[in-house]
Write a structure and sequence with these properties.
Elements: H1 3-42, H2 46-51, E1 53-61, E2 66-68, H3 70-78, E3 87-100, E4 106-119, E5 124-138, E6 141-156
Parallel strand pairs: 1-6
Antiparallel strand pairs: 1-2, 3-4, 4-5, 5-6
InterPro entries: NTF2-like_dom_sf, SnoaL-like
Organism: Croceibacterium xixiisoli
Coiled coil: 7-34
Length: 205
């Protein structure tokens, strides 16, 4: 028996298993990172939210334009301020489709958020958005590199999407973006943000 060949084969199998195990850990870490983002946003923990972003990250939410770099993203988050009394702001992170790059240093994820936003005695809305995000392992820690969120709909809670739809949320008057973005259709119009992946069965884009 060629013991050297067998040892080489076993070493190759071990390397493959280690690579798959690391990919599984990375997949879980990215999923947890995105869910953690949602929990922090729920409770207006803006410093925690900003800490999740990489140094050179990009933030783009709805039609408010792009914000570049960690400090500008922190400024964007702080703009919302502390939660007022009676605030309910749930951002449920759902249906993640995650792909980790072969080198284990970057990843992409498509997911949606279902939102309950409102305040006791004031306004209340249902909402939904789609994300196409990118992540990077920076200094050995997974962080958000690109957060891009498309508004799907917002509607008054008591009317619902069958009777009411809000227009695209655009720029803050008191916080201009680093780069403006083009508006896009929102419900009741149809718009499909591009996928970061191909059809896994047909291979079509």
């Amino acid at each position: 028996m060629d013991w050297e060949a067998e040892v080489r084969a076993l070493a190759a199998r071990l390397d493959a298993v280690e690579k798959r195990a690391q990919a599984a850990e990375d997949h879980l870490a990215v999923a947890n990172l995105q869910r953690i983002y949602g929990y922090y946003v729920d409770k207006s923990q803006w410093e925690h939210v900003a800490d999740l972003f990489a140094r050179d990250a990009t933030l783009e939410i709805n039609g408010r334009g792009r914000f570049f770099g960690h400090e500008r993203i922190r400024e964007y988050m702080r703009h919302f301020g502390p939660p007022p009394p009676g605030l309910l702001m749930n951002h449920m992170q759902l249906q993640p489709v995650i792909h980790v790059a072969d080198d284990g240093q970057t990843a992409k994820c498509r997911l949606r958020a279902l939102m309950q936003v409102g305040r006791m005695g004031g306004e209340a809305m249902w909402g939904e958005c789609l994300y196409e995000n990118e992540y990077v392992k920076e200094d050995g820690v997974w962080k958000i590199a690109v957060l891009k969120s498309w508004q799907v709909f917002y509607t008054d809670f008591d009317k619902g999407w069958a009777k009411h739809a809000m227009p695209l949320l655009m720029d803050f008057d008191d916080l201009p973006p680093d780069e403006k973005t083009q508006p896009y259709p929102v419900y009741p119009d149809f718009y499909l943000p591009p996928y970061h992946y191909r059809n896994p069965v047909s291979g079509r884009e």
